[in-house]
Design brief:
This protein has 378 residues and is mostly helical. The chain has 13 helices and no strands. The longest helix has 35 residues. It is globular, with a radius of gyration of 21 Å. The protein starts with 7 loop residues before the first helix and ends in a 5-residue tail after the last helix.
Length: 378
């Protein structure tokens, strides 16, 4: 049975976040305000922000149990989804290349990179975020627990310290264009920690105050401010940062840009949900998507490739599709047929709706097995 989320605002926000992920990877056909707030300027920090909002670490927290619980809640779905994605990858490789290129030896080797790049199964690349989130939450818990043993936690000071960390890793990553694998996980934690604290600051100090402000005015101010920022940067897209899994793609000449862009984008979409979200708070589909963000994150690229396989077979056997690049499809899981830009929407639907439908199918199979074996919980 689907568990109903109590915090409706964050239910809608997490749903919006995963829709943005799928849209970004289908080349932004929807483009939800991306001329002002490019997805890559805030949506990964927004997921950490949401985690920070619900973080409940205090001096009585048992760190061992906390880390164990986080490991189970994050890595269990990580490996399940990666395995399903891998099965899809085997099918795709056989169709496009006639052989398996990423076998068991390659998978075993890839295990060593989970806690650095986060990459495990190539076709499920977006799942890099799950090990990173685990590391950030554990790192944050360890720091906060140690501080609380000595003194009271001060969110203002924590924000300043974590902001300094964020600025440093962006500055250093820009200088070195990425970091070595040995430092990569530490750098990503230092980049994201400030957003964990921002989630708590918002919860304890800003949420009620912002509700008293006219949300439409806040939206207009944020749009105007970000419009101005994008106009003065060398390139408008410099507010965004790409390939954060490898700490690359910080193109802005200012190391403060990623943090400012993230906070602006997060605040904008929080305000949008405050203003318009109530109309869909009871929507079961929104709740279901919110409950299954990891599944959608891990499965939308495999589903893109299923669509590509269909196009590949049509192109090869029945009808030559104008502009379909077989060679590029055979070497990249990120290939999209873009002869007609409108076709991007087909990828978006395949990635989002297809992932939802396959998850419902998996849920149905689990329920049938559970009932047959008389298992009360699964």
């Amino acid at each position: 049975m689907l568990r109903e989320k109590e915090n409706k605002k964050f239910m809608v926000l997490s749903t919006l976040g995963i829709i943005m992920v799928v849209d970004a990877h289908s080349w932004s056909e929807l483009s939800l305000f991306t001329n002002f707030f490019p997805y890559n300027s805030f949506f990964m920090p927004m997921f950490v922000f949401i985690s920070g909002y619900f973080n409940q670490i205090d001096k009585n927290t048992d760190l061992y149990l906390y880390i164990k619980r986080k490991f189970v809640s994050l890595f269990f779905p990580f490996f399940i989804i990666s395995f399903v994605a891998y099965l899809v990858q085997l099918i795709v490789e056989m169709i496009r290349n006639g052989k398996i290129l990423f076998g068991i030896p390659e998978m075993v080797k890839a295990l060593s990179g989970i806690l650095s790049t986060g990459y495990f199964v190539p076709i499920a690349g977006p799942m890099w975020f799950v090990p990173t989130l685990f590391a950030v939450e554990c790192f944050y818990a360890l720091i906060k627990k140690c501080i609380l043993q000595k003194m009271k936690w001060n969110s203002g000071i924590a924000f300043l310290v974590f902001t300094g960390m964020n600025f440093w890793v962006v500055f250093d990553s820009r200088r070195n264009y990425g970091t070595t694998n040995g430092l990569l996980l530490i750098y990503k934690c230092m980049f994201f920690l400030v957003f964990m604290e921002c989630g708590l600051i918002y919860k304890h100090y800003l949420e009620e105050r912002l509700r008293k402000v006219n949300q439409l005015v806040v939206l207009i101010i944020l749009l105007l401010v970000n419009m101005g920022r994008m106009m003065v940067l060398p390139r408008a897209y410099d507010v965004a940062f790409n390939d954060i899994a490898l700490m690359k793609g910080f193109t802005s000449p200012y190391f403060v840009t990623p943090l400012i862009s993230s906070i602006a984008g997060i605040l904008f979409w929080f305000t949008m949900v405050e203003l318009f979200g109530e109309a869909i708070y009871r929507n079961k589909t929104i709740n279901y998507v919110s409950q299954n963000t990891f599944w959608i994150m891990g499965m939308h690229i495999p589903l893109f490739n299923i669509l590509n396989c269909v196009l590949y077979i049509i192109n090869k056997k029945w009808y030559a599709l104008k502009g379909f690049n077989e060679e590029e499809f055979q070497v990249s899981f990120w290939y999209r047929w873009e002869e007609y830009t409108q076709f991007r929407f087909a990828y978006f639907v395949m990635g989002l709706v297809g992932a939802i439908l396959t998850k419902k199918l998996v849920d149905l199979i689990k329920e049938l097995i559970r009932s047959k074996l008389n298992i009360k919980q699964w």
